[in-house]
Design a protein that fits this description.
elongated
């Protein structure tokens, strides 16, 4: 598995782990912080997915790892 695919899998696993723990929050502040981390992980997964598929839509993203 190339480096980009590995980073995608790691980001996806992190997202799933965070999502699975979201019901264990004890208070509103902890829940809010966890939701922020879930959103960051989701965006990271999307970023790697876009690189893998070669979709480039933002300025400065004129690259994609070749697979």
């Amino acid at each position: 598995m190339n480096g980009l695919m590995q980073r995608f899998v790691e980001a996806h696993d992190r997202y799933l782990a965070l999502d699975g723990g979201r019901t264990d929050c004890r208070n509103a502040k902890e829940r809010e912080l966890l939701h922020i981390e879930i959103l960051k992980a989701y965006l990271e997964v999307q970023h790697f997915a876009n690189q893998i598929t070669g979709i480039q839509y933002a300025d400065g993203m004129d690259y994609a790892d070749q697979h």
